[in-house]
Amino acid sequence: MEHIFDFSQVTTWFHDLLTLTLGLGDFWAILIECVLVGAAVLGAYSVIAMILIFMERKVCAYFQCRIGPVRVGPWGLLQVVADVLKMLIKEIFFVDKADKLLYIVAPFLVIFGSVGAFCFLPWNRGAHILDFNVGVFLLTAISSIGVVGIFLAGWGSNNKYSVVSAMRSAVQMISYEMSLCLCLITAVILTGTMQVSGIVEAQSGPWGWLIVQGHVPALIAFVVFLIAGNAEANRGPFDMAEAESELTAGHHTEYSGMGFGFFYLAEFLNLFIIAGIAATVFLGGWAPIQIGVEAFDEVMQYIPGIVWFMGKAFLLVWLLMWIKWTFPRLRIDQILKLEWKYLMPMALINLVLMTVVVALGLYIK
Amino acid sequence: MKLEFLSFDFEKFAKEMQNLKDQKGFDFLVTIVGEDFGEEGLGCVYILENTNTHERTSVKTIAKVVDGESVIPTVTNLWKGADLLEREVFDFLGVKFLGHPDMRRLFLRNDFQGYPLRKDFKATNEYTLEDDQEPDYGLEYSLDKDGKLHVKENRLFTNDDYVVNIGPQHPSTHGVLRLQTVLEGETVKRVYPHLGYIHRGIEKMWESMTYPQTLALTDRLNYLCAMMQRHALVGVIEEAMEVELTDRIHYIRTIMDELQRLDSHLLFTSCCAQDLGALTAFLYGMRDREHVLNVMEETTGGRLIQNYYRIGGLQDDIDPNFVKNVKDLIKYLRPMIQEYMDVFGNNIITHNRLENVGPMSLEDCINYGVTGPAGRASGWKNDVRKNHPYDMYGKVDFEQCLETSNDSMGRYMVHINEMYQSLNIIEQLIDNIPEGDFYVKQKPIIKVPEGQWYFSVEGAAGEFGVYLDSKGDKSPYRMKMRPMGLSLVGALDPMLRGQKIADLVTTGAAIDIVIPDIDR
Q1: Which residues contact B261 (CB under 8 A, 6 or more apart)?
Q2: How many CB pairs under 8 A join A and B?
Q3: What is the homologous superfamily of the domain B202-519 according to CATH?
Q4: Which of A111, A254, B319, B352 sits at a 20 to 30 Å CA gap from B234?
Q5: Is B283 part of the contact surface with chain A (CB cutoff 8 Å)?
Q6: Considering its fold, how many domains does chain A have in total?
Q7: Do A63 and B280 lie within an 8 Å CB cutoff?
Q8: ipTM tops 0.90
Q9: Using one digit for the tens of pLDDT, what is the confidence trace for A177-222?
Q10: Strands B5-8, B56-62: parallel, antiparallel or unpaired by DSSP?
């Protein structure tokens, strides 16, 4: 791993620049760093959102024998920019008799949960933004705040479709969080740490990716995680809360302008976050492919970690888009049946299986 | 079919109708035509079919005037499909049906004054400027012992019902249909359809048009069955005038009807997928529908709005490339239909979403008059092309597609199989279109002899028929359609009770309702 670029060199240099060269105190140095990191996170958040929106349009267009946006800019690249601009300058209006406080708070809660989870992604070696020793735990906790936002949006909008959607999304997301966490715990058993950076480090050796290391139980956990994650991100075939052919737009029916924009952004970013976590936990995050042949490994290590991470994450995003644009939507009772009767028992058994594998040392070392 | 009415007067009506159903086996009420018979008074014409022998009969009854109101006993106890049909008669003619539990206006607003299909109706702006108060109760009329009219209010909802309006603006009602739905959580308890959001009074307009003018409105009904609807209208007029058509006309009309059926079924299979959230399958269907439209466009000039048939034949001869184009289309389309099955129809989620959804048994289908593919999915042999063959349908070899699953999956499969059958029919005809005239010359002013006729064709979503009452003028005295969708909407409530909201959308898609056809 000695060739892989460590981003902490940059952060250390910058911290030294502030404290040693400029002679700032700890408080000011950390404040400046926090502001910069915050700006970088929001910047990355919106840029990735735009990339995802463009990608979704093109991917679904090609699945559907269409060509997608082509008019605005080369290959329609500026279409998303135009849409974002439009959304920014649209009027935000309130529905009569809506619960104003909940109505306003809801989109912020959704985006807060999403940005919070976004901060846990390991972009590169040494480029973690939030890296606690209970990382995975905190990640699931923070991402759950989004459910509250969707529920409040549905409840506060004074719209009957939205209420039905709120009930659906609450019951669906709370259910699927079970399998999601169980799959993460399965991974934690193998890596022995909940810290995100630690999880990646544990996968950086030859044949180290968890999906290889943990073979059968890891593979099961990976598949279950993707299904549950898809449901958690409210994407087809699990887009119950939105279900445009039944509930028009579900919880965000009554939102306009950036209120709607936040839901829209959060939906796409949640997709990326799910893919990112799956890439981190099961596919080694920023860790390159290592096969134990020195020359090959070395070449792979020269490819920067962020390329590996983004490559894996976007591969999974593409996989999830493929699923979304192929399958019809399930019905709410079928979704719950799938979770409580199949996925969760499977994840539980898998957890036991993984424990046995780890206890007996049957995993690939 | 020239109608020879059985006439029953008020006292005997209920008993005789019961007899017709129980003794003679007329178990399918095709339609009810309300009519102002002038001096005779208001009345109704009932067209009935025996579903075993396919024999049809018609009954005429004149309403009895009680306290200044015209009343006829209801037949909803015999044929449940009469529910909406009787409400329509009440709406347009003000005939009150004794014992009908829910006498409300069906198409017109509640503040509309008068009954437009009465001959003494004067068309002024009859709408008030006050709010349209929608009653939350239905009226039930009955005669008490002294022969006085008695009214009872039946509440539609209880106080703690959670009522959601699905529509009139909704992505999957396929138009401006409003389904007032009582929900209990996700479960549907009751569905009240509210119609008339796109009601244009076509039947009323027809009464002041000459016969050639009436044709122009048929493509605005079910916009996917423009050809078949026009076919039924010219069919009834030609039958009444006893026009002899050439074989060429019969051949071309049959081919065009089947092309239109393909068009409609392709849209059906696509929209069914879209309503289930499978947008990709939707666009596959739309892609192939373009090819069908291209073939039709070269001959008729229209893509959605088809104006091709006229009284005595066709607007124009077929395009020189027509035969070749149709053959190419057939070759192209067969593998594509399999593709819809691969991408959507055989998907496990699709099966879960469609199977046992919106169930309706064979008996109920006949009782509610659920014709077309929706009825055939319950095993009802109701194909007009087989039972009352017109044009070339008696001579070509095709199968009536039946399923016995009684559910939405069956309805979807009937549509898929019918596309293959349509291709078979076209294939048999396309090579041997005989030479001859494409138009039999008619008099400049068309007058239809006195009498009543009913002619029906198999539309894409059910039986489409036109009833014509002529007094020998150049305009019809009364012309009434049997829309495909009205009986389907009437059957939505029994299909959906106890099902989920998502099933409402699925069932609506699977029985193929198109709103302009229901509202007319």
Answers
A1: B225, B228, B418, B419, B422, B460
A2: 86
A3: Cytochrome-c3 Hydrogenase, chain B (1.10.645.10)
A4: B319
A5: yes
A6: 1
A7: yes
A8: no
A9: 888 888 888 888 888 888 888 888 888 777 778 777 878 888 888 9
A10: parallel
